[in-house]
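Example 3.2
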Amino acid sequence: MKFLTFGEIMLRLKAPGQERFFQSPALEATFGGGEANVAVSLANFGMDAAFLTVLPEGPIGDACTAELRRFGVDTGRIQRGPGRMGIYYLESGANQLPSKVVYDRAASSAALAKPGDIDWDHAFDGVDWYHITGITPAISESAMELSLESVKAARARGITVSCDLNYRKNLWKYGKRAAEIMRELANYVDVAVANEEDVQKSLEITTDVVVESGALDRDKYRALGDKVLAAYPNMKMIAITLRESHSADWNDWAACLNDGKNFYVSKKYEIRSIVDRVGGGDSFAGGLLYGLNHYEDRQQALEFAVAASCLKHSILGDFNRAGVSDVEKLMGGDGTGRVQR
């Protein structure tokens, strides 16, 4: 099984620890981005995963590519183009102070990419599964057009398409609403991943779920999934993550999966003292893609995804560095965190 993910990877500049921006004159530099995070997760699980993006020429783009290769991600499809490296700044929250993300990605190489820039025959050569998110069509009008071109090309080739809806209100700035684009893109999606806000804001499909509520009524999520699957007959399933946020560093974490026939709800994990929750949803998506291709039982696939994402909350950086054995130990009930000697 060959996976391809497509989107923008950015330079991540994070204030140390729980400091506010420039509380000390230092920022920690790594790389991250939704689709790249999924590719790294899949590679960590031993899958054949490639990442496609457009990067600028020069040492920063070279360093980014080298970092992905270090995790075993196939970078052979990455293209170089005009523009710059997108950046995002991260300030980690704690207790009642929320985390904060500031984007600086206008005129990035990925944002300037346009239809026709990517040879999809080459990009999809040997690919069985294609993954995209709702972030890429949000960054620019040309990236949106390229995203739609990509899912249509994947569908025409019989490639399975998954999409994490990933609504980002701070990115939709070029005159289109998220729902205008994502409702069209969803027609080409086989497996959707979302949280309740993504469904409401990207697809304009609602139940009486209250997005801002800390407590989540799981009984309402089957109806929400049913509505999505009814609206998109080509979609085979939708997974919805269920995050109950007590504070910035104390969340409950679970998910449900609706395939139109059965409704699965995962175990719930209480995650206290969160180290880094950025990339948590991407680690869920990566875990779900692995699980759906390794377990006959979709309940097990869902449990793998939730456990993988639970572990990511204890790992610094965008990338989930947990392997299959780490995840399966947690799935089996070993969540004590005792030292292993």
